[in-house]
């Protein structure tokens, strides 16, 4: 290896994933969308208007568009937005964050999946996202998002390392626990430029797991009801060992009283046996 040019970036608010990372992102083992799609179909069986926050390269938008949803989205990474627009030429995809995204008109569903919420730099940003999602939704609209749990970071991020290779490009992902429910995820990308010349770029992402009780209280304070938390892997009941939660929270319908936004109603139950409902 005769030449190694190193570029290092540190995220402050999830404005990450530069050109090197995005070029390999979709070609590495991709996130498993099946469970998210099942959950969306269960909680919102009729397709409508959707806005995906932190849409990445637009894979979820593409899948939901095929299922009849009218999709739009945003991402704070300009490189991700370019890739998402290429993949979804008819979708309106903006370069915006969870704190400043805007929708043209109220939507039926807001999504934010695959660790996006964990990348938010502070709990204040998480609360801001919940409020903006609430404002973007129609009456009876639905917010669906996921988050890795404190159990995942505290247990599984000790000595975590994973290597992916696509052609002459390698991506090494290393997880490190830095505190209770907190950690860093480092992406080291090695790309062959020519012959024995390689370029290395490094991104360090800071992640924070949400405390369950704080999350539920913040959703309630933002005006959501009918909050449901399931294990994202099984769509069954979340347990202390669950490594990822999948959460749905609904906006009250237009006829609901104003006081309903400050409490959580009983969960919508009984539509399927495979989804174990946990309401608050």
Supply database-style keywords.
single chain; 280 residues; seven-stranded mixed sheet; five-stranded mixed sheet; 7 helices; 12 strands; disordered C terminus
Summarize, please.
Helices cover 24% and strands 35% of the residues. With 280 residues, it is an alpha/beta fold.
Model description:
With 280 residues, the chain is of the alpha/beta class. The protein has helices at residues 19-25, 34-43, 59-66, 78-87, 123-136, 150-156, 212-221; strands spanning 3-10, 49-53, 70-75, 92-95, 107-112, 137-148, 160-166, 169-179, 182-194, 197-208, 225-231, 244-250. The chain has 7 helices and 12 strands. The strands form 2 sheets. It has a 7-stranded mixed β-sheet with strand order 4-3-2-5-6-12-11, with helices on both faces. Strands 1-10-9-8-7 form a 5-stranded mixed β-sheet. Strand 5, helix 5 and strand 6 form a beta-alpha-beta unit.
Strand content: 35-45%
Order of helices and strands: EHHEHEHEEHEHEEEEHEE
For the termini, the CA-CA separation is 56 Å
Relative helix content: 10-25%
Physical arrangement of strands within the biggest beta sheet: 4-3-2-5-6-12-11
Radius of gyration: 19 Å
Annotation, overall tally of beta strands: 12
Report the sheet with the most strands, covering strand number, pairing sense and barrel closure: 7 strands, mixed
* Overall pLDDT level: 85
Q: What is the molecular shape?
A: globular
Low-confidence stretches: 6-15, 257-280
Number of helices: 7
Give the class from helix and strand content and strand pairing: alpha/beta
């Amino acid at each position: 290896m005769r030449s190694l040019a190193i570029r290092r970036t540190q995220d402050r608010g999830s404005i990450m994933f530069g050109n090197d990372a995005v070029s390999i992102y979709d070609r590495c083992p991709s996130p498993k969308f099946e469970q998210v799609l099942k959950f969306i179909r269960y909680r919102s069986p009729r397709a409508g208007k959707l806005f995906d926050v932190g849409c990445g390269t637009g894979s979820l938008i593409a899948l939901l568009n095929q299922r009849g949803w009218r999709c739009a989205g945003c991402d704070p990474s300009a490189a991700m937005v370019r890739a998402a627009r290429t993949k979804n030429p008819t979708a309106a995809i903006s370069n915006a964050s969870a704190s400043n995204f805007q929708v043209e008109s109220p939507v039926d569903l807001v999504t934010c999946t695959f660790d996006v919420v964990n990348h938010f730099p502070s709990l204040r940003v998480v609360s801001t996202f919940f409020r903006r999602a609430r404002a973007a939704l129609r009456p009876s609209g639905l917010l669906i998002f996921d988050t890795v749990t404190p159990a995942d970071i505290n247990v599984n991020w000790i000595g975590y390392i994973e290597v992916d290779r696509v052609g002459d490009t390698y991506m090494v992902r290393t997880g490190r626990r830095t505190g209770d429910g907190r950690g860093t995820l480092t992406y080291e990308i090695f790309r062959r430029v020519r012959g024995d010349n390689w370029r290395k770029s490094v991104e360090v992402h800071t992640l924070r797991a949400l405390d369950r009780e704080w999350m539920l209280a913040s959703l309630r304070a933002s005006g959501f009801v009918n909050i449901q938390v399931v294990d994202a892997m099984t769509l069954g009941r979340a347990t202390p060992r669950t490594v990822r939660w999948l959460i749905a929270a609904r906006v009250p319908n237009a006829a609901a009283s104003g006081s309903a936004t400050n409490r959580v109603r009983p969960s919508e139950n009984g539509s399927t046996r495979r989804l174990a409902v946990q309401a608050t």
